[in-house]
Amino acid sequence: MVGVPNRDSAVTLLVVEDDPAMLVALRDILESAGYNVLTAPNGKIALDILENARPALILSDISMPVMDGIQLFEAVRKLPRGMATPFIFLTAKGTREDIFAGKMMGADDYITKPITSHELITAVQSRLQRADEIMVAQLKEAYKASLRTLANAIEARDHYTRDHVERVNAYAQALAMELGWDEDRRDALEFGSILHDIGKIAVREAILCKPGPLTTEEWAEMRLHPEVGAHMIEGIPYLAPAVPSVLHHHERWDGSGYPHALRGDAIPEDARLLAVVDTFDAMTSDRPYRPAMEFERAFEVILEESGRLFDPTMVDSFQRCWSRGEIQRIAMTAEPTKPTHLSSGSRQSAKS
Questions:
Q1: Residues 275-288: pLDDT tens digits?
Q2: Which domains does the chain have, with CATH numbers?
Q3: pLDDT band per the 50, 70, 90 thresholds, residue 330
Q4: Minimal CA–CA distance to 276: which of 198, 179, 208, 342?
Q5: pTM greater than the 0.90 cutoff
Q6: Residue in 200, 210, 338, 351 annotated catalytic
Q7: Is 200 one of the catalytic residues?
Q8: What is d(CA 269, CA 264) in angstroms, rounded to the nearest whole number?
Q9: Preceding omega of 65 cis (within 30 degrees of 0)
Q10: With contact defined as beta carbons under 8 Å apart, do 267 and 253 qualify?
Q11: What residues pair up with 287 in beta bridges, in sequence order?
């Protein structure tokens, strides 16, 4: 939340106003609130200032000589770094038509004179807060896109697991919505879904693509990937909520999983959910050591293993999503060619 800045981290604003008295008044109000304030008497000089400065917000009068506020706004929006800069129009005109016209142009706010100190500070803080929220959202999406690229690059080492990350995340989000998880939990789950197999970067490709059963030594190497993945992301603050999913998605309800043989409620809830959907996608995907299983048979296996391998609550959620066709829709959308054959080794642990 944007509040009054302190002296050490003061936010810089640009105020553009042709009335000298008004310009001084606006500057004094904003500086008294802790902001650094740059000033310009018209749009032309404001643009000159913008060549060397990057204010967090621009507050501009509309009616000015040389270059008015509307021309300034249009010029700022053409600048690469000006596209996202909050821009507030300040004018003596306050008709509904004027306000509508200003907002239709894309201005962030439109406030009329005379304005009190409280109104000015509130408007500035509100727009800076909104800009911060948008930036955080954009960064989060950029992080997810980058992580997807990395995860898919790792999966690409084994062409049998193509699109595995995207399907697992889609299944996981469907179950999370069914369980009523809030947005923060679903975000953490999304990072976990994207990154759950990132530790496979340390597994030899010969093992990932081996057409036959793994040896004891090869299984030992494969089973390191959850811990490797968790260590890779544990020092990154925004990925911290995904660590339990990455580390424990191969744990099993009866304690037969790895890496720590956790049992029941000792397994993090996100990992319990991910275990169901990750296994379902592994069973319904062709692998070098076995063909894909039919969706219906894989669904039956998930139900059969409720209370043994999987948390019954997660299986119930999966069953409800299946009953309304959501699981099938995701599967068919992500993988147009539906498998029509059964796997004779349906209970064999997948190398997923």
A1: 999 999 999 987 77
A2: 7-132 (3.40.50.2300), 156-334 (1.10.3210.10)
A3: very high
A4: 179
A5: no
A6: 200
A7: yes
A8: 10
A9: no
A10: yes
A11: 290
